[in-house]
Design brief:
Layout (H helix, E strand, L loop, with lengths): L13 H12 L16 H16 L3 E4 L5 E5 L9 E6 L12 H17 L7 E6 L12 H7 L4 H5 L9 H11 L14 E7 L4 H5 L3 E7 L1 E10 L3 E2 L11 H15 L7 E3 L3 E4 L5 E2 L2 E10 L2 H17 L5 E10 L2 E2 L2 H13 L4 E6 L5 H5 L4 E6 L15 H19 L2
Parallel strand pairs: 3-4, 3-5, 5-16, 6-15
Antiparallel strand pairs: 1-2, 2-4, 6-14, 6-16, 7-12, 7-13, 8-11, 9-12, 10-12
């Protein structure tokens, strides 16, 4: 039962929360102060073991599943009740920072530790979760763990994906599970009562407005593609232009046309972030090019309009080459559960913390959970909006305030 006059937020320890960010950052630490901790790597396993140790020290039980999602469970009075989940991810981009994803996991752990310190047992269990492969930098696309958990994609398809070295996600998962110590594997198909994800904003809005907490209203839509252009290798000094099947020139024409089309509206984000050229030799006409396209906008119609344009332009600009377009991800814009958003605002007011509504421009595992159970998100500011960068930074007092709101919200949900 919820105790009157006592709330978990009073027991949240900001120094412990801050210190744990830097302890996890040691796993995959870069010389420039950033973090390179690929999904399902030895570095992530070391960070995972650290989390398990912290959880066990306060009586939490560690579990995993076939996707190597990690759960730290605080038992409730009703053991069979669907648990309340909270967390994020601990894998990073190659040039990552100390807070992206990690804050959500550590905030959830600190919230549960505050509940334990309060000396009360929730009606429902609460589980801290670290989802597998949110970033998608090693195994693409990302959010694989939350997709497996919610049944969005079959586990077999997710585990068949290969990284740049040819290692499958399934092989990497097996390595992670082998490195775990006394962590049982649970089956999929377990229900959840609710999910809340805390995260740094990864944008400049909260910092500019001087507001420490954002209650996330929703996430903008996205489509992601891989484009394979196939031409023919030829000698750079002897092959005339009319004879060439230049895969790179065809790809450049496609990208340039897409860039012109994406100039308006200003909040339409179109990114070509990856491009590989084969054979990538200075005196050889490129035989093959693969590039990525990432499209995002809050209005699904705008995303669909660019989708149609992409399909037309790759054919129109391929010249004598062949082109294969594959869409690897599609996630429409969404609005989070209204009751969860109201609850988060209420807990912010009760704690005397200023909070405002904010829309998420970046994708998160909460997107997948939104279709599975009542879901919400809490944002805290990050300096200059910088993320996926060693200079990524958040202030300790903001992390504390976001975690205090999270703790009170989790306690409320676990006692409904």
């Amino acid at each position: 039962m919820e105790q009157r006059g006592v709330s978990p937020s009073e027991f949240v320890n900001g120094e412990r929360l801050w210190d744990r960010h830097f302890k996890l950052a040691a796993h995959g630490a870069r010389q420039d102060g950033g973090v390179d901790r690929p999904a399902l790597s030895a570095e992530e396993s070391a960070a995972r073991a650290e989390l398990i140790g912290w959880g066990k020290s306060i009586g939490l039980t560690a579990y995993t599943d076939e996707a190597a999602n990690l759960f730290l469970r605080l038992e409730g009075q009703e053991a069979d009740a669907a648990p309340v989940l909270s967390g994020s991810h601990i894998d990073s981009q190659p040039t990552g920072g100390k807070f992206d994803g990690v804050f959500g996991v550590l905030a959830a752990l600190e919230a549960v530790e505050a509940i334990v310190a309060m000396g009360a047992k929730p009606r429902r269990p609460i589980e801290v979760v670290a989802w597998m492969n949110e970033e998608g930098s090693r195994f693409s696309p990302g959010m694989a763990g939350s997709e497996a958990y919610t049944g969005v994609k079959p586990i077999e398809a997710l585990l068949a994906v290969r990284d740049a070295d040819g290692v499958t996600a399934g092989e990497a998962v097996a390595q992670v599970l082998a490195r775990d110590v006394n962590v049982p594997v649970r089956p999929f198909g377990r229900p959840a009562a609710a999910f809340i994800e805390a995260h740094i904003e990864q944008g400049p809005v909260l910092e500019k407005e001087g507001i420490p907490v954002g209650i996330v209203t929703g996430i903008q839509g996205t489509r992601r593609y891989r484009v394979q252009v196939t031409g023919e290798a030829a000698h750079a000094g002897t092959a005339n232009r009319s004879e060439r099947k230049d895969a790179l020139m065809a790809a450049v024409r496609m990208i340039a046309a897409l860039d012109r089309e994406a100039m308006h509206p200003d909040d339409l984000k179109v990114t070509v972030g990856m491009l590989t050229v084969t054979p990538n030799a200075p005196s050889v006409v490129p035989a093959q090019v693969m590039f990525s396209i990432d499209v995002r906008h809050p209005n699904n119609k705008e995303v669909d309009r660019i989708d149609s344009f992409i399909r037309l332009v790759v054919e129109a600009e391929k010249g004598p080459c062949e082109v294969a377009l594959s869409q690897i991800a599609h996630a429409p814009s969404l609005m989070f559960n209204a009751n969860i958003r109201i609850l988060l605002h209420e807990k912010a007011r009760e704690a005397g913390i200023a909070a405002t509504d904010i829309y998420s421009a970046a994708g998160h595992d909460a997107r997948q959970l939104h279709y599975f159970c009542p879901t919400g998100m809490i944002f805290v500011p990050c300096k200059d909006g910088i993320s996926h960068n060693p200079n990524e930074w958040a202030e300790s007092e903001h992390l504390l305030m976001g975690t205090q709101i999270l703790a009170d919200a989790l306690w409320h949900l676990a006692n409904e």
